[in-house]
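Hi C.,

You asked whether I'd gotten around to modeling the 188-residue construct. I have! Everything is below, sequence then structure, no commentary in between.
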Amino acid sequence: MLLGDYIDRGPGSKEVLDFIRELISLDYKIIPLMGNHEDMICKAQDSVMDNHNWMMNGGAVTLESFGAGQVSDIDGSYMDFMSKLPKYYIDGNYIFVHGGFNDDLEDPFSDEYSMLWDRRFSYDSPVFAGKVIIHGHRPHALAELEEQIRNNPSVINIDTGCVYGKEKGLGHLTGIDLNSMKLYSVDC
């Protein structure tokens, strides 16, 4: 399970998308979800204001990785791939999402904005009873994630801020084995 933000977070955005697409073509069982950055680039092609927002959030480095001057210069197959990424995925008792959910709605899965941008530590909706929500989007220190796992949480934020370097205990790319709840982390 990949939780989004494959672009805008370093000089290799195109290469990251190429790698994900290659894994899928080789029948690896991965499910890439949409992050807010993939959503921003998809909207950037339709609106000057959305394009400005995307550019302010890392769009220039993504354009550079594609050798593109503007979003319309990016090969349409990439845009099509990103626009079709699911916003969430349910596997047994686990719900995977980039951001979070709008806990105030009867159907929290109907609010796509929250799935890309929300950040919650807990949910009260009966829809999530007995489930564990795993998300990214909001970076926190690896030590905080380790403590979170020890406390048997119903929400796990796996984002340990790879893009931010050593700032405030960040700077790790982290995965989790859900069978053992063991974390795997590499320094960036």
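If it helps when you're writing up: The beta strands are 88-91, 94-97, 132-135, 155-157, 172-177, 182-187.

Thanks,
B.
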